[in-house]
């Protein structure tokens, strides 16, 4: 402490504070960049870069004296910024677009978040009971705008009936093919194309719907819900992992865990963060409880009104709705 005060005395308080802020800013920027790239392809790039720099140093005259290799690496390093911008253009665009906004499902009211997830769970159960394939990407921290661009833009409240009707596989319904995207608690696009995973450990029996779901979950921190047309099973993809064959309860638990987890670019390490996590999980449970109570009459109403649609009046759907509300109750 004495030494720090000495530095302040010798250099003067203004200069010392300037240096302190200078170092703090650089420290914070590097820390955020490391958190941002943690667990992504950029980490491999970083290791590659360290190897290149080490080779650059040892190829100098005073060490190995590899003139051509040294010149080549020098050229590479001189153009490094341009190379980085080209390789990471999408990520940079997304990171810049992300500034100043937060996902509703992570930053909005816990009650609204619970409602949105409940509608997605109900829709998935309904789709699953009829073996209608579906792919739903729910945005968290990473912006999904890039993936909505080529889809069909929608701006609608997330409801079970809307999600169900979007995926009904009619020829006249172009929305059913591709992925539906939920951003800030609203349906923003359907018929979107998602990147397929290159992971060769993914089971060979899984087709492109599942591969697209895993692919997006590798590139972003979105939660992906996949309903299989072939088997009717519900899976959730998150951070490159696919959790398969979920019932409504398991799906709810899994999604709640994902949405109460730290964003991809943050780590919950401090006591304050842990306290925030705990508080948000208490709020989430209270909201879920309130939603269950409020939803009881609303669900009945929805079931009645959906009875007017020939497709939705099949017994399978009534069963599906019951299954959701039953399993919902069972969580409490
Ligand atoms: N890259 C993609 N992005 C978004 N949706 C896609 C993509 N690829 C395929 N799909 C959707 O998946 C459907 C094809 O699913 P496919 O049968 O190949 O997959 P699957 O994983 O075996 O799923 P299922 O179990 O439902 O059959 C397409 O009709 C389309 O709706």
Radius of gyration: 25 Å
From N to C, what is the helix and strand string?
HHHHHHHHEHEHEEHEEEHHH
Oligomeric assembly: single chain
**Average pLDDT number:** 77
Number of helices: 14
Which strand order do you get reading across the main beta sheet?
2-4-3-1-5-6-7
Strand content: 5-15%
- Ends distance: 53 Å
Shape estimate? globular
Helix content: 55-70%
- Uncertain runs are 263-270, 296-332
What is the CATH fold-level name of the largest domain? YojJ-like (1
**Heteromolecules bound:** adenosine-5'-triphosphate
Examine the secondary-structure arrangement and name the CATH architecture of the largest domain.
Answer: 3-Layer(aba) Sandwich
State the major sheet.
7 strands, mixed
How many domains? The number is 2
EC number: 2.7.7.85
GO molecular function, one term: diadenylate cyclase activity
Biased composition (Basic and acidic residues): 320-332
Family: Belongs to the adenylate cyclase family. DacA/CdaA subfamily.
Q: Top keywords for this entry?
A:
transferase; YojJ-like (1; disordered C terminus; binds adenosine-5'-triphosphate; 11% strand; nucleotide-binding; cell membrane; alpha+beta; 332 residues; seven-stranded mixed β-sheet; 14 helices; 2 domains; diadenylate cyclase activity
């Amino acid at each position: 402490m004495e030494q720090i005060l000495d530095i302040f005395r010798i250099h003067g308080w203004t200069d010392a504070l300037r240096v302190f802020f200078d170092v703090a800013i650089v420290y914070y920027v590097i820390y955020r960049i490391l958190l941002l790239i943690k667990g992504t392809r950029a980490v491999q790039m970083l290791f590659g870069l360290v190897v290149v720099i080490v080779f650059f140093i040892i190829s100098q005259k005073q060490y190995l004296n590899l003139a051509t290799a040294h010149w080549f690496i020098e050229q590479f390093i001189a153009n490094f910024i341009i190379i980085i911008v080209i390789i990471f253009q999408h990520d940079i665009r997304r990171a810049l677009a992300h500034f100043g906004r937060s996902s509703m499902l992570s930053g909005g009211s816990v009650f609204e978040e619970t409602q949105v997830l409940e509608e997605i769970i109900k829709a998935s159960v309904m789709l699953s009971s009829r073996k209608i394939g579906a792919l739903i990407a729910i945005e968290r921290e990473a912006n999904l705008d890039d993936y909505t661009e080529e889809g069909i833009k929608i701006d609608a409240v997330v409801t079970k009936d809307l999600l169900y009707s979007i995926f009904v596989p009619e020829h006249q319904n172009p929305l059913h093919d591709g992925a539906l995207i939920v951003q800030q608690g609203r349906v923003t696009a359907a018929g979107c194309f998602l990147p397929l995973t290159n992971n060769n450990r993914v089971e060979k029996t899984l087709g492109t719907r599942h591969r697209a779901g895993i692919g997006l979950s590798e590139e972003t921190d979105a939660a992906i819900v996949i309903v299989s047309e072939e088997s009717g099973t519900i899976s959730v993809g998150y951070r490159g992992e696919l959790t398969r064959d979920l019932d409504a309860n398991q799906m709810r638990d899994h999604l709640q865990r994902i949405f109460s987890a730290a964003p991809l670019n943050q780590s919950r390490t401090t006591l304050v963060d842990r306290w925030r996590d705990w508080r948000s999980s208490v709020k989430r449970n209270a909201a879920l409880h309130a939603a269950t109570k409020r939803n009881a009459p609303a669900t009945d109403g929805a079931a009645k009104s959906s009875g007017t649609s020939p497709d939705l009046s099949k017994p399978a759907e009534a069963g599906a709705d019951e299954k959701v509300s039953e399993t919902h109750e069972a969580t409490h």
